[in-house]
Write a structure and sequence with these properties.
Layout (H helix, E strand, L loop, with lengths): L4 H14 L33 E3 L15 E3 H4 L8 E7 L2 E6 H7 L1 E6 L2 E8 L4 E6 L1 E2 L3 H7 L5 E2 L2 E8 L2 E6 L5 E3 L4 E4 L9 E2 L2 E4 H7 L4 E3 L40 E7 L2 E6 H7 L4 E8 L2 E8 L19 E6 L1 E2 L2 E2 L2 E4 L2 E4 L5 E2 L5 E3 L12 E5 H7 L4 E2 L3
Parallel strand pairs: 4-16, 18-29
Antiparallel strand pairs: 1-10, 2-16, 3-4, 3-15, 5-6, 6-7, 7-14, 8-9, 10-11, 11-12, 12-13, 17-18, 17-28, 19-20, 20-21, 22-23, 24-25, 25-26, 26-27
Length: 394
């Protein structure tokens, strides 16, 4: 049953709007391979197959970007607003930004970054932006089907299905279904395999641009006609709204649509409320120091980033801020931080740091904190997939 109410109807409309112009390329992979929902009797699955529900569009009806083009920061400046959110990837000297105004319409980008094949994903229904290595070792049925023993590079598409309101991807080589939030294949020849997550961070365009003026930016030249910059899910992230096509149990500790920063380290999981960080903010910023599974972490939060899911124009949406999660140690030395007018300052050396965990002045200038894999998402999805999570109380 489709969601009811104004927001539910709007979400249905958005999904059909996004898929109104179908992809030029139909689902690939061997034509003799069926999708799991086409098989009778149904194949084995790690989750109930009847809970993997159609969201409306067909496979690749929301077209992934398979041949991404990139442009310079100066070129992207012409169409990106300072406060717009981008998904940032940084490795060594390489940096790349994936604007959410593009990801909202495509959800998956099959790319190569710093020499590695990756998949950058965004599920608007969960506000979950996650990047993965897309090389996976075939075992069992996948090895037999592909005739390969060595790791293979997978190409991912949108299945048109949702599991607990989360994007379900499929790989074009075997048509296995993968849950975006966990990176795990839940049915098909790759069942049980898990993709390795790459640290990424949602930040404002201005924050990213200032830190990485020589970076590359995903271009709006995608091969598809979309109204980039507009949000087809207007009003979806209202804290009082209901997740679309979510049929799981709600964890009542927080409202389902409350925005949280979420972290898992060595099996320990914790959620940090955006609301708490907003209330703590001084100079427009806040810092949380915590220890999770014996790992000291620092969470930086700063005003100045709009929601991708609020107003119909992303650039005009409400300011929800942005966060980054980092290992608080440099060369084995633990640092503690506090907000400052320039960003963040460590109490040990007085160095100034930006939201991306990079020291921009002081004794440690040029140093970079190790990023900790995290997500900026809604409480309902995190508590569904990490039910044993704790909530930071301060």
């Amino acid at each position: 049953m489709l969601a009811t109410g104004a927001l539910g109807a709007a979400t249905v409309t958005a999904l059909f709007l996004i898929s109104a112009q179908t992809s030029d390329r139909s689902p690939t992979g061997s034509s003799r391979i069926a999708f799991p929902w086409e098989i009778d009797p149904p194949p084995q699955s790690l989750v109930p197959l009847d809970e993997i529900r159609s969201g409306g569009p067909p496979p690749d009806g929301i077209p992934p970007i398979d041949e991404p083009k990139f442009e310079s920061v100066d070129e992207a400046e012409a169409w990106l607003d300072d406060r717009e959110p981008v998904l940032s990837l940084v490795r060594d000297e390489a940096a790349r930004a994936y604007p959410l105004q593009i990801l909202t319409w495509h959800e998956i980008v099959n790319d190569t970054f710093a020499g590695d094949p990756i998949t950058v994903t965004y599920c608007p229904l969960c506000n979950s932006g996650i990047a993965f290595h897309r090389r996976s070792e075939p075992t069992g049925a996948a090895r037999s089907l592909l005739g390969a023993k060595d790791p293979v590079v997978l190409d991912f598409g949108t299945s048109g299905r949702l599991y607990r309101s989360n994007l379900v991807m499929y790989d074009r080589q075997t048509k296995s279904l993968w849950i975006q939030f966990t990176g795990q294949a839940v049915t098909g020849p790759f069942m049980g395999a898990e993709l390795e997550t790459i640290p990424s961070q949602m930040v404002s365009w201005a924050e990213f641009r200032e830190a990485h003026a020589d970076a590359s930016v995903l271009s709006r030249d995608t091969g598809h006609r979309r109204d980039y910059g507009r949000n087809p899910y207007a009003g979806y992230d209202d804290v009082g709204s209901t997740p679309f096509l979510f049929d799981g149990e709600h964890d009542g500790r927080l409202d389902p649509m409350e925005r949280v920063v979420t972290v898992s380290v060595d099996g320990a999981s914790r959620a940090y409320r955006y609301r708490s960080m907003n209330e703590m903010a001084q100079h427009g910023a806040a810092v949380i120091s915590d220890v999770l599974a014996d790992t000291p972490i620092a969470i930086f939060y700063r005003f100045g980033t709009t929601s991708a899911l609020d107003a119909s124009e992303i650039a005009a949406s409400k300011d929800v801020g942005a966060a980054g999660v980092f290992d608080a140690r440099i060369a084995g030395r633990r640092l503690t931080f506090e907000p400052s007018p320039e960003g963040f300052r460590d109490n040990q050396t007085g160095s100034t740091w930006n939201l991306l965990g990079e020291a921009v002045s002081g004794e440690l200038e040029g140093s970079r904190l190790e990023a900790v894999v995290h997500d900026d998402t809604f409480w309902f999805v995190w508590s569904t997939f990490r039910p044993q999570t704790t909530i930071w109380k301060g």
